[in-house]
Design a protein that fits this description.
Elements: E1 5-10, E2 13-18, H1 29-44, E3 50-54, H2 66-71, H3 80-90, E4 95-99, E5 102-104, H4 106-109, E6 116-119, E7 124-126, H5 140-148, H6 150-157, E8 162-164, H7 165-170, E9 176-177, H8 182-194, H9 198-231, H10 234-244
Parallel strand pairs: 2-3, 3-4, 4-6, 5-7, 6-9
Antiparallel strand pairs: 1-2, 7-8
This protein binds coenzyme A.
Coenzyme A is lined by residues 23-24, 26, 62-67, 102, 104-105, 128, 132.
Amino acid sequence: MTDSIQTDVVERILQIRIVRPERKNALTHTMYDALAAALLQADEQSEIRAIFITGTDDCFTSGNDVQDFLSHPPSGPDSPVFRFMRTLQQCRKPVVAAVNGPAVGIGATLLLHCDLVYLGPDAKLQMPFVKLGLCPEYASSLLVPAMVGHRRATELLLLGDTLRAEEAVSAGIANAVFDEYYQEKAFDKAREIAALPPAAIRMAKRLMKEPVEEQISRQIAREGAAFVERLASPEAREAMMAFMQKRPADFSAFE
Ligand code: COA
C-alpha cells in the first residue's frame, strides 16, 4: 500500500516504522490507512503481544503532510486520519513508542494514547495547531491541560512552544529519556511487556482506560468536527500556503 509505513513482527511484537525522511516522515492519508490496518491486524492476531511504533533515527514525524491535507482533507469520522486515531485509542494491546527528533502535531498527540513512551535525547514535541489556523486534536485539549495545567498548556497548544525530552518526562507525557540507542532500549521495554501474561495485560489496560474513555472519545469527536471546519478556513489556507511557499504567514487581514 505504501513503503513509508514499514511493519515487521519481531519476537511477537509488531514493529511499525514511519519512514519518509524526505518529508520528515509527514503522514499522508495513505499512511494513516496503513497505520490503522497494521494496528487493527495486530489487535486481532493472538500471537502479537505488543506494538512498537517509531520513526527514523532523528525524526519521529512532522505530523500531517501539509500538502496532502490540502489535496485530501479529512471530511469526517471515516477519513483515514480519524480511523487511525480510533484504532490506536481503542487498541487492546500495549503500545510502546520510541521517539527522537521532531514529533509534531499528531506526532505528539498520538503519544498521549500510547502506553509507554521513550524518547531519544533530541526529541522535540510540538503541537502548532493554532499557528496553522487549526485547533487541538486527539483529545489534546483535554489531556494536555490535565497533565501540565492550563497556563503551560496554553504555551504548548496556543503558542505552539516546543516540549523538550526532559520536560516531556516531567509532564508525564513520556516515561524516560534514553541515549542514542533509544530505539533498542525502548524495544527492550516492549519485550518486557510482551513477556507478561497477555490476558492480564489486556484486562489491566482496559481497567486503566475505561473510567475516562468516554470523555476522551467525546472530546476527540468534538475536536475532530472543529478541526475539519478549521481546515477549510482562510486562516488555515494562508498558514499552509505560507509553509509550502517557505514564507511567514500573514494573518493581519483576518478578523
Ligand atoms: N508536510 C509536508 N512537508 C513537510 C512537512 C509536513 N508536515 N514537514 C516537513 N516537510 C518537508 C519540508 O517542506 C521540506 O521540504 P523541501 O525539502 O522540499 O524543502 C522537507 O520536508 C524537510 O523539512 P525541513 O523543514 O527543511 O526540515 P527541518 O529539519 O528544518 O524541520 C520540522 C523539521 C518537522 C520541524 C519542520 O519541517 C516543520 O515544522 N514541519 C511542519 C510541521 C507541521 O506543521 N505539521 C503539521 C501539524 S498539523
